[in-house]
Write the structure tokens for this entry.
Amino acid sequence: MSNRYSPSKINTFNTCKLQYKYKYIDLLKSDLTTIERFMGSMVHDTLEQFYKFIKDENIKSVDWLLKYYKELWDKNYTDSIKVVKAYLSPEDYFKKGETCLIDYYNHYKPFNQAKIVDVEHMTFFTVKQGEVKHSFCGIIDRLDYDDKNNVFEIHDYKTSNRLMTQEKADNDWQLGLYYIAITKKWPDVEKIKLIWHYLVFNKEIVSFRTEEQINELKKEVIEKIATIESTVDFPPQKSALCNWCDFQNICPLWKHIKKMETVDVNEYKKDSGVKLVTQYKKFEEEKNELKEEICRVEGEQEKIKKAAIEFAERENISVIDGPDAQLKVDIGEELRAPTKTEDEKTWWALRDFLIEKGKYNDVSTINNNMLNYKIRDWPHELVEKIKHFLIRKRKEIVKLIKK
């Protein structure tokens, strides 16, 4: 496993430890490409080439931009690209990318906001905290320099359908780490502006960092890497991102599911795993039906219990006779400790009193069963004082006994 880290490497660990193991420890390769990833890549590559021309003071037209995007798409698209959302077609994604580029072009023309330092800027840097340091690498989509204000701008293109919140931007690790990289290359820089271009929304999200925030980021990154390097178990983590994972076909959570998606109906029904699920489901349903029946029976029994108590009180008896069994009815009052929910003020008062008398450790906490058990051995005078904290509650017990 490489000792060099990257923001995406750490993000993978946070998303799913097993995916991290497959990708960075086992070094498994995958030919899987999703349509979202493909569209994003084509848009990125188009903007990369576009800005290379701008860097050489050659601003291409929007027609050129769209033509180049289409040529890239046609050249690289294959039927093996996975379309996760069945209700959308590859053409839908192509048009979405086209709209992103048109909106972007119209938003930023004539493209003179800052001077372009580099596009797809590969950067290598270290993150150090105390005596611990780790090597990092990453690719910045575009690095600009505003010479009027001595500000570097780190640009990142996003084709996601989810718009990042300002709070998330202000705590983002990826561009935060690139901030560290730029300060090491150009120590005299006065300010660094972090910019996310959410192309689907035609919106910029902008963030800055303080020295305090950067020091905190370094600390968090060092701690996260310590966690990564001490990890021995790499369990899978199921999430909404699973459908876009390169290793879904070998993941324990998905392996059988993905296999069953490729077989015909007859083979599906014969599969031993499918049969096990079917049998288990049948018994689970039977169990739930029994639970429902037990609840119904207990409800009817509770009605009889209330009727038995009323009968015993009316007839002034404590045992009700039956053909082969009897019901023993015990009606009265009991003193019991209040629960914290019933009477929090009294609960705390009783607790403080028991602590004062050195008896709290005997009962561990204010628990009615434990208090009743211990109270038998305590002095009569103490018990009488404790009774002031207790509540009177009607006791109704109905017990079935054999003749």
In short: Strands lie at 115-129, 132-146, 151-158, 191-198, 203-207, 319-321, 325-336, 391-402. The two ends are 76 Å apart (CA to CA). The chain has four domains: 31-111, 113-231, 263-317, 329-402.
